[in-house]
Each structure stands twice: as C-alpha cells, then as structure tokens.
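Hey, can you fold this?
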Amino acid sequence: MTDPSGVKPAPGPDQPPIPVRLVTFNTHHGVGDDRRHDLPRLAKVLAAADADVICLQEVDRHFGDRSEDVDQALLLSRALDMQLAWGPAIDEERPGDAPRRQYGNALLSRLPILVSDVHPLPGTGEPRSALRTLVELDGGALWVTTTHLTTRSAEERARQVQLLRDLHTDSMETGVVVGDLNAAPNAPELSALRADFSDAWTLAGDRDDQARWRFWQRDEGHTHPARAPHVRIDQVWVTPGIQVAAARVLDGAGASDHLPLVVDLLVPSGV
C-alpha cells in the first residue's frame, strides 16, 4: 500500500500486521497409513495447504530403504519451489562416498531465510533436535523454531522444552515454536513454554478440524493418529503480539500417520 506520493509506508506499529500462513506436519518419513513411501503424495498435500512456511518433522535424507534412500528435504523443496533449512537429529557417516545418513526437521519457505541453526536437545534414546530459523517478511521478520520432542518421559520433555525456551532470547521478540511435542498443550512438562508463548489453537478466531462425524471431538484440533485422531500433539505456540486468524487440521490424504496443522498468523509489522 502506498500514500498518494507513491511512497510505501515504513514498517512499524502503525502499519497493519503481516499475514503468514504456517503449516506443521510430522511426515512419518513419507510413509502413509497404507505403509507406502509416497513422496509425490506428500508433496501434493503440502502444496494444497498454500503455506508461506512449512515445518516438517521425521524427514529422511538418504536414510535407507524405508524412504528409498532419497533426499526427501531437497526433493520436497524443489517440488514446491521453496527455500530449505535443514536440522538433522540423526547424522551418521556411511561407507565410501555415500551421502550421510540423516533424519530430522526441515523448514520450507516461500520467504527469504536469513538465519538457520540446529540445536541438539537433551535426553536419551532417539536423538532429538530443534531447527531455529529467521524468516524475512515484507516489513518484519519471524523466528521459527521447529522441533520433535521425545516420547520417552515427561521429565525428558521438560528438559527439552526448557532448552527451547532458552533458545528464544530477549532479542527474538517475535517468534513461534512448532512441531510434534508428544504432549498435550496443558501437560506439566510444557510449563516453561507456556510462560512466554501461547497456544495458537486456543487463540484462533476461526478453528476447524477433521472430527467429521465425531461431533463430541469437533474443533479440538486432534492430529494423531491420522485415521482416528484423538490427541493434539502437533502444535504451534506464538509470542505475545502475534494474532491467530485461523487454525485448521487438514486432511492428510493418508500421507502420514499424523495430520497437518495450518495456522494463519498476523505478525506485527516492523519487529
């Protein structure tokens, strides 16, 4: 929008908020509930969401036979014509000149990615990590931290959540934490997150999910398991000032054992 002189207004608190559509989706390494690895099917689901930023968990890069040893992150970014940030949780050498065997979180973005770094999370068992990125907006910026917390215990999740909170420093005024948290939004182990972030689903002015005939669960935002979702473990958390116009659980077309969650954010200008 410009004034009569043709000059675009400078970003700032007096300007309208910036719309950003964000998706979070645990892809189950591209294997659907029919047990088939089908990356084109997954790409179609993501394309239909028409998102500016897509946060993915359980993504393989040359991991092995279960995902046909392909680089899923790169192939999806090319199929959707989006920039890629990558955050491995598992990173192993393979014999000879073979590409490294990796598994973790990915962020795809229509918007410029300015910063990207990876942070291992504490805990035992399967390694976990957080992918922290800074995305440039037209008149602002947004920190996006994508993660996948452990299933082992609430105590380990609490330590991981504390690290996520510590990653979001005072200078990172505007940001979101998203992913498969393997806990309900009101779980005690998420208390450190709730101290500085709010659950986007509860803030949303408009909500819709895939409950369909399960009228007693309608609008509860359940995302797992995909065939009969009854838990809300895939979440988006936002800092104060970010508005949530809408939140929807999408039909995943059988592409994963989770359902994708899309949120329409309104991010303050100039921060």
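Oh, and this one too while you're at it.
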Amino acid sequence: MKPFMPKLVYVEPRAMEYKLAQDLHQKFKDQGIEIRETTSHNQVRGIPGDNELRQYANAKNTFVLGVRKTLKFDTSKPSAEYAIPLATGCMGHCHYCYLQTTLGKKPYIRTYVNLEEIFDQAHQYILERDEPTRFEAACTSDIVGIDHLTHSLKKTIEFMGDQKKGRLRFVTKYHHVDHLLDAEHNGHTRFRFSINADYVIKNFEPGTSSLDKRLEAARKVADAGYPLGFIVAPIYLYDDTWKEGYHKMFAHLHEQLKGSSVDEKDLTFELIQHRFTKPAKRVILQRYPKSKLEMDEEERKYKWGRYGIGKYVYPTETQEDIKKTMEAYINEYFPNSKISYFT
C-alpha cells in the first residue's frame, strides 16, 4: 500500500508560526491538495459528505495542522509514565479500534507542529524522576503512518536518544519505516508492531499494511538496532481454525527475524484479547454496518473498567485457553523473549 496522503488539509492560523506547518503547507500546496483554514484543530467543520458514513470516510482522509496548547501529558497509560502528544487520529479503518469511541465525532487526523514546546515539557518530566521515564507516542494515533509527511516521530526518537533517562515507545500497523532506520536512537526507543492472524487483518483492519509488510519492516527495524516488540491484538477467535492462524503468524514472524540483529532476550510480546464496550459496539455497527466482527454480549464475560465503563471479554475458561496457546507458540519460536502481559 502507498504511504498516506490526505485529500483535504485544514490549518490553524497560529500553526503557521511554526516551521513544520510552513513546510507541510508548501508540500500540500505543491501536491495540489485543497487547504482550508480552521479556528482550532478541535473545531474542524465542513468536512464533505452527504451522510454520516461519507463524512466519516472523508474525515479519515483529512489532515489538520494544529498547535498543542495543553502541554500537560496524559499519565493514565499503563505501558508508560506519560503519553507524548504528537498526533491524534488515524487513517486506518480497524473495526474494533478504541479510537472509534475515544475520538467520537472528530476522527480526522491531527498533527501538532509545536514540537519544541512538546520536547521542553517532556524534558521537564524527565528531570523530575530519578529513573528512566517512558513516553508512549501511539496512544491516540498510529504515528508511523503519518511520519513520512511530518518526521515528527523521527525528531522525537532523536530527542529521546539524547536524553540519558528518556525512553520512547510506540506501536504501528504500517511498514513505512525506511526514513526512521538511520535515526540516532541510542537504544532509547522501543519499536513495536501490531500483528495478527491473516484473517483478522484482512477482515477487520482495512487501510493498514499487510502482515508480510509489517514483518519485513520489523526485520529492518531490528537490523537498525532498535529494541523490538510485538503486540498481538486483538486476539480474536474467528472460527475453529484460529489456533492454526495464530501459529502460522508466529512461524512467519520467526522466519522473517531469522538471522536478523534482534536481541531475543530484549524481545517483548504484549497479548490483548478482543474486547468491546456497549458504546463501541454501537459506533462500530454505525460505521461498519457489514462488519463480521462478533460482538455477542451473551457469549462474553462482563468486566468492570477503571472508569466505570465495563468491557465484554471472553469467558474465563476461554481466556485461559488463549493465554496458554499464545504462550506455547511464543515459547516454541522465541523461548528467550519476554511476555509483558496478557489481558
């Protein structure tokens, strides 16, 4: 698949005070892409479409250049001390994605151009702690999917590479990594890929890179010396062949990494079973009415969430089977790696 290129661009007036916005504005102008002005990246109006579905699809092709005014970083992410705000929104159409509800009626893609201010704030957070401070860059976006345009992620990788106690991590479903391979990361950035069985990618992850492409990119990243990890998510029981599908995935990954520079003792796996909330189910069915995604509440176990919104997960016995199966596959192909968690 080709790298993302927006069909419509919005710009906050204040964004043009920053060089990144100036460069992107010129790039899109040269491409003949329509550029409009908006008062705020939070108040983009006029995205075309004669119905909600069409507007949603068009929003996924809309790019907004904004200024991140609130520089207090989110601290609610379990995988890191802070979420570093580089972008919001994603061009992918993953049916199950939690951003369906998180972003609500603002599914367009925003990039924040005041990087130096964001880095200054990150530096302050690093100084406040005695131990390494981890920043997650993909909580609200697939940052790799847009970085060929902005190079914001590359700048962040090199910024963290210069910080003795700064650490960066992110996850992606895109293979457009070539421009990141020569970044001076100094081992301070963990590059993670979201991978899944072919059935899940083909049916529920439109607009993302194929498994083959992701694994080829992972090989490049390993050979560039980045600490590497994989998120298997969502682990989805699609029919009686799901175990075979996931075994094939791990075998494919093993084959692709064979002979690479990956340090297996530093290789991490994060395992996340499929889950959904009632609000998410409602939005998913509105936006992807023909989705095959199974969301039968009667077949699931209800689990209370941290903020009072419960999730539907697989029954306990099924979860134990999933966990045992995934652990067996990882131990078969990557016995020295670390399973960070199963949830």
